[in-house]
Amino acid sequence: MDKATQVIEKEIAQFEEYFKEAVKSRVPLLDRIMRYIVNRKGKQLRPKFVLLSAKLGGEINISTLRAASLVELLHTATLVHDDVVDDSDERRGFFSINALWKNKIAVIVGDYLLSKGLLLSLNNKDYKVLEILSEAIKLMSEGELLQLEKARNLNLKEDVYYDIIKGKTASLLASCCAAGASSTFEDDSKIEKLRLFGEKTGMAFQIKDDLFDYGDTNIGKPTGNDIKEKKLTLPLIYTLNNCDKVTRNKIIYIVKNENKNKVKIQFVLDAVNAVGGIEYASQKMFAFRDEALSILYAFEQDDVRDALEELVRFTTDRSF
């Protein structure tokens, strides 16, 4: 992501300072937790999409920085709550909030981040940005619940899988691009183009994340973790729809009843590889990436567009 870092280096620094101020609290415990969150900032992929989408239409302004901060506040809130739901002790190689301060405090911290994001927009009358992000949060919740509902019978069709990831992952990246664009573009059709660009990129991003479960790269997530959680991802869906009946029944039984057994999980991983689930999911991932790039190429070529293209390619080429 070198190009992206170069193109918005100054604006990223401004965003970091703005975000640090946005999360401050007068409650000592809360302020200590906020400093912990700020110091483990990760790749900052979503704020970069906000800033670059804005810069595609003009100079980044204070409204853009608020949009990027709102995105990061809402995204962090969902991650904190997700770690509680998943009983996860780690996030980005660090201890999760619930691991250090227990579930009750973690839930309250997530609520605090959400409220800070809402107030940041309301106090500055950024109603368009707030509308965009509120829709994304709604879609994320629907996507997560749809996944939980469909995972019960392990009979998930590919189109339903796309509906799930469009909600739980792609909607937030779509809102990043739309929110950023809304701070500089006046043409609603261009804002919508960038929203769709973000959505396609988000679809590719999630499929790549699913593929990590079938590799041996050290990404901070154990191989076979999705199987242990009974999550039906694209490689597994393809395998269940294209393997023989005996293998299919065995995979379903393992996922439902033996998903903690390492030997059994390895059988599922091997079956997915043998049937071609990895290759098929990779092809779909690259197809979504190419759709995103074709939308991006409608904009005039410059350093900002090149930086966005680099970010898109990072989503599918990354090793973590």
Class from helix and strand fractions = mainly alpha
Mean pLDDT rating = 87
Q: Write the CATH homologous superfamily.
A: Farnesyl Diphosphate Synthase
CATH class: Mainly Alpha
Structural domain tally: 1
Q: How can the largest sheet be summarized?
A: 2 strands, antiparallel
Distance between the termini: 13 Å
What is the name of the CATH topology?
A: Farnesyl Diphosphate Synthase
One letter per element, helices H and strands E, the order comes to HHHHHEEHHHHHHHHHH
Low-confidence stretches: 216-222
What is the strand tally? 2
Helix content: over 70%
Describe this structure in words.
With 320 residues, the chain is mostly helical. The chain has a single domain, classed as Farnesyl Diphosphate Synthase. Helices cover 76% and strands 1% of the residues. The longest helix has 27 residues. About 2% of the residues have low confidence.
Which characteristics define this entry?
single chain, 320 residues, mainly alpha, Farnesyl Diphosphate Synthase, two-stranded antiparallel ribbon, 15 helices, 2 strands
